[in-house]
Amino acid sequence: xxxxxDSVSVAALSRSAEDLLAxxxxxxxxxxFSRTCITWDEFLEQPLPTGTSPKQIWSLLNNLSRAMGVNxxxxxxxxxxxxxxxxxxxxxAVAIVSKACSSGSHLxxxxxxxxxxxxxxxxxxxxxxxxxxxxxxxxxDEDADVLLxxxxxxxxxxxxxxxxxxxxxxxxxxxxxxxxxxxxxxHLRDLLLEGVDIGDIETLATPPLGLTLFDFxxxxxxxxxxxxxxxxxxxxxxxxxxxxxxxxxxxxxxNDCFRFYRPLGQVSNQVGRLVAHLYATRHDLPMxxxxxxxRAKLDWYEGRIAPPxxxxxxxxxxxxxxxxxYDLTSMATVAAQLMxxxxxxxxxxxxxxxxxxxxxRTILEADPGLNSRQRSILGQALRDADAEFSIRYHKTNxxxxxxxxxxxxxxxVDKGYLSVQLRGRGFVFSASPGLHELVSDSxxxxxxx
Length: 449
What we know:
- By secondary structure, the chain is mainly alpha-helical.
- The protein has three domains: 10-68; 83-349, Fic-like fold (Orthogonal Bundle); 365-448, Winged helix-like DNA-binding domain superfamily/Winged helix DNA-binding domain (Arc Repressor Mutant, subunit A), CATH 1.10.10.10.
- It has 21 helices and five strands.
- Strand 4 (418-423) and strand 5 (426-431) form a beta hairpin.
- The relative contact order is 0.11.
- The model has no long low-confidence stretch (mean pLDDT 87).
C-alpha cells in the first residue's frame, strides 16, 4: 500500500535512471544512505549529481528506501504504512544487543545467579521510575523509589499503578506459552489496573514524548483500538511482517506501537513494555527486558544522552521524521543505539559488582558465621553508606521465610554490622557507624594471619 507522501520519480529528473545510477556522486550518496541514517544537514553537505536539487535526490533516495526497506506490519490510524532501512549501523547495534541478551550470554548467566537478584532489583527500580515519567505519571522520584525499594503499601491510585507495573514483570513467565492477542493485552491491562481507580491517576500536564513524535486524538485511538491490537498481535506472532525484520528491532517497535496508538488508554505504554519483554524472551533475548531502556529513552529525550553516543539528538530526530514521515530508520537507529548504551551500563555495573563482591567476600570470610545473604547485605551497605534494608524486601528478594529473613538482620545487628530503627509499622536496617572499622579490623586480622 502506498503512502500519500510527496515524492519525485526518476522521470521528473533531467537525467535518465541509467545515467544517474552510473554517476559516481550518486553511487556514493546511495552507499552512505545504506550505511547510516544520514541527517538532512549532513545530506546538504554532500556533493550532488549535476542537474539535480537536494529535494529531488532526497525524495528519490527515500523512494529507493521504500523498495529496499523492511516493511512494518502495523499501519497507523490513517492507514499509512511504515518501513525502515536496515543500515549497517542498525545491524551492528542489533548484533551487539542480540549477542549480549541471549540466554547463553555471559551477561545473562551472571545476572541470573541468586547473588545478583538484588542487583537486578535495583535496575528494575530505577528503570520503572524512569518509565513512570515516560508514561506521564506524576510522582516524585523519591516517593517512587521508597514505594518500590521498600515494598511500601501504595497510598494512592498512581502509586498502586506503579507498583502493579513493577510487579507484573514477575507474572510474565506464566504467560510464556500464550499467543499474542487482544485477550492477552487485556489481561496485562487488568494486572496493571488491579485495585486502581483510573480516574484518580495523577498525570503530568506534558508527558515526555520519548521516541514518538506525532499524536492521534483519543477518540480515534479508542475507535480503532481493536484493529490496532489485531495488527500488533499478528506482527508479534510472526503471522505478518517482513521475515528480515530482526526480533530485537521488532521488540523495540512493538513497545512504541502501544505508546503511539494507545489502544488501552492510559496504560497502553505500560502494557507495551510488558509485551515487548515477553516477545523478546520468547525469541531467546531474555536479557532484553532487563535492560534500563526506559531510562535511556528518557535521558535521550531530556538531552543527557547526545551525539556522539547516539547518531543524533531530539531536534534532528524530529526534523528527519518530518522530512520522511513514513521512514522509521531514524527511530530504529536511536532505539538500537540506546539499547546498546543501556547494555553497556549494565555490563559495567555487573563487572564492578563482581569485582567489589569478590573483594568483600575475601574480607568478610574472616567472619565464618555470616551466610551468603548476610554477606550480600553487608556488601551493599559498604558500597552505599545510605543503603537501607527491610525484612519484607529481603524475604521476597531471596525467596525465604519471614523468620529467616528477620534472623539474618538480627544477627547482623547483634554483631554490630547494622543498626535498626522503627519506621512506621516496620523496621529499617542500615549500616552501623562502625561498619567500615569492623571490616578494616577483619582485613588487618587476615593480613596478620
